[in-house]
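Here is one such protein, fold included:

. . .
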Amino acid sequence: MLEFDGLRKSFGSNQVLSGVTFAVAPGSMFGFCGANGSGKTTTMRIAMGLVRAEAGEVRWHGRPLDGEVRRRIGYMPEERGLYPKMKVAEQVAYFARLHGLDSGAAARAATEWVDRLGLGERRGDPVEKLSLGNQQRVQLAAALVSRPEMLILDEPFSGLDPVGVDALAEALLEQCRAGVPVLFSSHQLDLVERLCDSVGILARGEMVAVGTVEQLRRQEGGRLLRVVVPDAPPHWAAELPGLRVVSEQAGDTLLDLDGGADDQAVLAAALATGRVTHFAWREPTLVELFREAVAVPTAPGVAA
């Protein structure tokens, strides 16, 4: 188990992390979500020993991470840490040797990952000659090449085209099937929802939601009711009892009903405004759950 326990960190008067706690089980993928500046990168840097926490610790198999354990982590920082003049295959093999592979094993592993991530034809090119997306693939190959015991990846899908996204997703799923815990941050919540076993949402330095997507849905009340009434006036549902308007745009309204609300009464109200072209329950997406989780609470008596 990769455990983050009570991490606290401030930069001057800015409290970046306030008791951040979560865990990533072996063979599972954990999606770390949060707005820019929420503390995701700081959390990962603490795990890698690049930033010192003021309180709390990161543990692997119940023991605090040390330099030896960190050598067995496949880490990808948000900022590219590549040598621009080195050739692609040489670069990846170099990182494999830094993690302890001998030269022969490093060369073989570099060839495997360069090919798997779609860089086979560019293996002899200097990194600086690659597009930003292909440089991202090199950085990913460098994180994966050493057969890591765990993966910590900061925005690994950023800049990748759909083919690159699919190649990386399959590589990460393969690592999970081999028992490797995978922690990655991303703003691409559709990918997080599709790939991850568990999700953590960080806001204002605190973990405001942790669990599977299904658990987060239950915490937020479960299903949402989508009603499409093309000719309805704006805010037609705002005064109906027992519900909350999640979103409304051009007659397409998403509603959250409490346990005592009557969906048939909502349908009748919608029909009173015009022709209803869609009326159905659906599960909230991770994007919607994220918006709910990171919303700033409104003080009592203050209008939202």
User: Anything to note?
Assistant: The domain at 223-282 is CATH 3.30.70 (Alpha-Beta Plaits). The two ends are 40 Å apart (CA to CA). Confidence is low (pLDDT under 50) at residues 298-304.
